[in-house]
């Protein structure tokens, strides 16, 4: 062999060795990657397993809900379900008349409304409203700061009355929808039990919320009377009944979740007030605080709860409602980033920020039907600064959205079944074929279509075809404010007392 040939052979051997080394590196990399992938998939599978809501589990949850309802009605503190007496013993009839205001506070926004009620079957006339977001610092500040901000906004809204107030010599009247747990002491007074949904204003707890609002109204030069204080579920029930006499229950699936329903007064042992003439009383369940050993809870839920402003409370709410679904998803993604390098070698820093992933964004990803799952990619980029995700990874994210949202939706139908059972409306024989209408409101139900579809189909599945036909879910659009105005009207200070015969 000449020198040239020897050199060629040496080169050839070296090239072959290099190629072999390169191939080995690719294989190693693939194996490493598939190791990561396998780890990530193990996290997904474990989540799916722990969040499982087979029908038998849902039936147990529904039964536990019914049992807790009985316990909460029996005695004060008898259950995690507060079963609060609302003092609403007469729901709207259609006779309500006049110009009324409402104030709806309970989430990240509040609304002020002006409603003209036609009276005697004429329905609701002109409605005007304004929605204002609550600056986050006011959600954890002082009671005066929050109520002054609201009173100021209300004052400006009142000033936009076009034709002036039609009842000279009278104060304007207001229905106050305050969507937190309140111990009512009358239809127009009650003390705050605790905050939920990210509010935490210590000096308001135990205070009469109408008193606090009234003081703020006076400080801001407004002579208004609060004639009804209601929870959003109670307001939704009232407006639902105004339009449809078969409404028996209202459920909110929004930032928080809760339900109210019409109970027989003699089925409320803890009620020692005068027996209502209607024989009925609306109960605000505060079901967000429901807990049962049958609830499918995961490590992510437990950590979210421990780190929340209200640990140990509102567990049902924390696995169902809009404030929390996106946050649960973020926690799962963080674990996948940390333990399985799901987004590459480093953990995306933004993924560590609590509540950065909001439920509306999760919903947008979940509903992405584009071929490349473009919305998922864009959301990851815009919110978490995660780029270049593979299609496979995006598909996994959709699966996670599905697991978390489906659990919440199915559990909320189990809650509704619990109420129907308590009212004996869950079977044809007991219900006598009567229609039962459930008024449903809240942004989660309204905008997260896969959530609402799953909730409705699960309820049908739980009830069975025959009875499902007599249970109707009716969307109520922002009924809680109108409901408060209707109740302010039926409890107006200026209503003439019926003449004595
Ligand atoms: C929270 C509140 C409750 C309210 C619900 C829906 O659970 O405690 O009062 O009805 O959110 O807004």
Automatic annotation (TrEMBL):
Keywords from the UniProt entry: ATP-binding, Glycolysis, Kinase, Membrane, Mitochondrion, Mitochondrion outer membrane, Nucleotide-binding, Transferase
Domain spans labelled Hexokinase C-terminal: 249-489
Protein name stated in the entry: Phosphotransferase
CDD domains documented for this protein: ASKHA_NBD_HK_plant
Annotated EC: 2.7.1.-
Homology family: Belongs to the hexokinase family.
Species of the source: Trapa natans
Species lineage: Eukaryota, Viridiplantae, Streptophyta, Embryophyta, Tracheophyta
InterPro entries assigned to the protein according to its UniProt record, in alphabetical order: ATPase_NBD (IPR043129), Hexokinase (IPR001312), Hexokinase_C (IPR022673), Hexokinase_N (IPR022672)
PROSITE patterns xrefs: HEXOKINASE_2
């Amino acid at each position: 062999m000449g020198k040239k040939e020897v050199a060629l052979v040496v080169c050839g051997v070296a090239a072959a060795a290099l190629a072999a080394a390169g191939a080995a590196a690719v294989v190693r990399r693939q194996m490493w990657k598939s190791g990561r992938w396998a780890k990530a998939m193990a996290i997904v599978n474990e989540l799916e397993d722990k969040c499982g809501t087979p029908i038998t589990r849902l039936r147990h949850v529904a039964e536990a809900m019914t049992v807790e309802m009985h316990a909460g009605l029996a005695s004060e503190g008898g259950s995690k379900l507060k079963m609060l007496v609302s003092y609403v013993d007469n729901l709207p009839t259609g006779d309500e008349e006049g110009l009324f205001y409402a104030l709806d506070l309970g989430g990240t926004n509040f609304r002020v409304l002006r409603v003209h009620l036609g009276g005697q079957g004429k329905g609701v006339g002109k409605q005007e409203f304004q929605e204002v977001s609550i600056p986050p610092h006011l959600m954890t500040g002082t009671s005066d700061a929050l109520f002054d901000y609201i009173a100021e906004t209300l004052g400006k809204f009142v000033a936009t009355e076009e034709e002036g107030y039609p009842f000279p010599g009278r104060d304007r009247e207001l229905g106050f929808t305050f969507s937190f747990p309140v111990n009512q002491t009358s239809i127009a007074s009650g003390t705050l039990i605790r905050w939920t949904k990210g509010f935490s204003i210590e000096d308001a707890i135990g205070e009469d919320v109408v008193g606090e609002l009234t003081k703020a109204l006076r400080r801001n030069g407004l002579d208004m009377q609060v004639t009804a204080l209601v929870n959003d579920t109670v307001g939704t029930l009232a407006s639902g009944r105004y339009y449809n006499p078969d409404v028996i229950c209202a459920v909110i699936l929004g930032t928080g979740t809760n339900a109210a329903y019409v109970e027989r007064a003699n089925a409320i042992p803890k009620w020692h007030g005068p027996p209502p003439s209607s024989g009925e009383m609306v109960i605000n369940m505060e079901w967000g605080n429901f807990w049962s050993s049958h609830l499918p809870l995961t490590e992510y839920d437990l950590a979210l709860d421990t780190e929340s402003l209200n640990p140990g409370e509102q567990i049902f709410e924390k696995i169902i409602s809009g404030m929390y679904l996106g946050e649960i998803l973020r926690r799962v993604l963080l674990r996948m980033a940390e333990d399985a390098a799901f987004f590459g070698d480093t953990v995306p820093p933004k993924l560590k920020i609590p509540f950065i992933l909001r439920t509306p964004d999760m919903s947008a990803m979940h509903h992405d039907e584009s071929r490349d799952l473009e919305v998922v990619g864009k959301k990851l980029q815009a919110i978490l600064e995660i780029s270049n995700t593979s299609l496979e990874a995006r598909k996994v994210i959709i699966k996670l959205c599905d697991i978390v949202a489906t659990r919440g939706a199915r559990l909320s139908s189990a809650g509704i079944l619990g109420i129907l059972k308590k009212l004996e409306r869950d079977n044809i024989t007991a219900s006598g074929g009567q229609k039962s209408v459930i008024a449903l409101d809240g942004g989660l139900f309204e905008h997260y279509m896969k959530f609402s579809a799953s909730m409705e189909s699960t309820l049908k599945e739980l009830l069975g075809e025959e009875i499902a036909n007599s249970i109707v879910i009716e969307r109520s659009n922002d009924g809680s404010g109108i409901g408060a105005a209707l109740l302010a009207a039926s409890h107006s200070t200026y209503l003439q007392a019926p003449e004595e015969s």
